[in-house]
Write a structure and sequence with these properties.
Length: 172
Amino acid sequence: MLIDIDKVPKDGLRLSRNFDFASLELVEEDTVFLQPVQADVTIKKMGDEIWIKGRITTCLSFVCSRCLTPFEFPIDSKFDLVFLPEEFHELKDEFDDEGIDQLFYQNRQIDIREVILEQLNLTFPAKPLCAERCEGICAVCGQIRRNGNCGCAIEESDTRREKIKIFVKDKR
Ligand SMILES: [Zn+2]
Ligand SMILES: [Zn+2]
């Protein structure tokens, strides 16, 4: 969905619509959309600068990286971006110095769908977990631990002993 920069009216443009994306377009390809992506976007022009403010809401199903169980992940995220024309790209070094992640538009157009997709991908957790304390699956029989104790005897993990060692060291 292309926005023509020169056709953005003086007092801005408001968009409110659903976007459909394929799971393959996402950083987490195992993700399933449980509802379409609803986006409310305001586009404003200040000279050559394009300001895009928006809000994305949707609900996805992720696969837990520890126990491999799918779980629901609602998203309600806001963003506030500024785009400059590509001619400004030569000044990129200056922006880098200031630690600004500057965005640019090309051919006097901005693809809103791409913007939404990128912002959506940014909201994803680096390591999806069904719960912060998910204990994953049993290393012996493969049962999901939160579904109950399988009764397998698992050797005391080294990390625990490691922690005691550190504790003793701190005491000295
Ligand atoms: Zn889990
Ligand atoms: Zn087990």
